[in-house]
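Following up on my earlier message about adenosine-5'-diphosphate. Here are the inputs again, as you asked, copied directly from the submission form:
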Amino acid sequence: MGRVIAVANQKGGVGKTTTAINLASSFAAAEVNTLLVDCDPQSNATSGLGLAKDPDRINTYHVLMGAAGVEEAVRPTSMEQLWIIPSHKNLIGANLELVDAERREFRLRDALQPLRDRFQFIVLDCPPALDLLTLNALVAADAVLIPMQAEYFALEGITELLDTVERIRSSLNPELALEGVVLTMLDERTNLAQQVMAELKRFFGEKLCATTIPRNIRLAEAPSHGKPALVYDVRSRGAESYIRLAKEIIAHHLPVQEAPTEEASGAQEVAVAQTAEQEQVSEPAPEMDKSA
Ligand SMILES: Nc1ncnc2c1ncn2[C@@H]1O[C@H](COP(=O)(O)OP(=O)(O)O)[C@@H](O)[C@H]1O
Ligand SMILES: [Mg+2]
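Thanks, got it. Here's what our run produced:
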């Protein structure tokens, strides 16, 4: 079973989409089949991976509304092991249209179910709001990854998100874990960054990702070329740091265990599934066009 990671923070401009694109592409570069689901009507992850605006293309909106099968929504990207379910600005309507729908918080979870064997990682890029779209992502996810900037009152800014995660755990998705908190756009040399990092370390402990993402112009430029940073400039500090973050997360899920525990056997399953999937690389999309 693949791991579903929601990249969430209700604040805009903290690096969610940059993290979603570059983490997903780094997973793919590590040769694990990865799906990025753009859950944001702003569609920045979609355009950032080079997909042109197309209102007729099946997207996350259709998937949530049950108007299309999820298989039809999956598109190839320029990377062999990376696929995307694109978004479109019409997705904003789902927030209202789903209000009275049955199992409205479970729409994405139910839809992604048939894909979980096909991808080792499914990364969800959330909108900058704690709306029904983010709620669907958090209910569909095994874990939430929170990108944050190192600034004063950083903790206050995410209390609401942590409360939401807690609420979802106690009701809609008891299994929801905290994948980690990742510091983005970091300028490590400043005292402020050092102080905030120390504070976050005290608060989150192990959950603060060891990898931090520096402020790096290549990360900001890459989306305008429709490429993940590691395709645009693999030697940039930005690309390298996301590759490291992906390795850190992969390592958490393929841990070296001293004794055979439940978790260890879970990890073996992942490793086996991985080999099995790699044998059928021609799947999943027959209409796959690598030049897209
Ligand atoms: N590490 C970084 N270095 C430089 N620019 C960045 C970095 N991370 C994000 N950006 C830029 O900051 C802006 C906001 O990032 P984005 O990922 O879109 O945030 P969000 O999805 O949370 O709104 C974008 O213009 C993006 O290119
Ligand atoms: Mg975004």
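One observation from looking it over: Strands lie at 3-7, 34-38, 75-76, 82-85, 121-125, 143-149, 177-184. Hope that helps, and feel free to reply on this thread.
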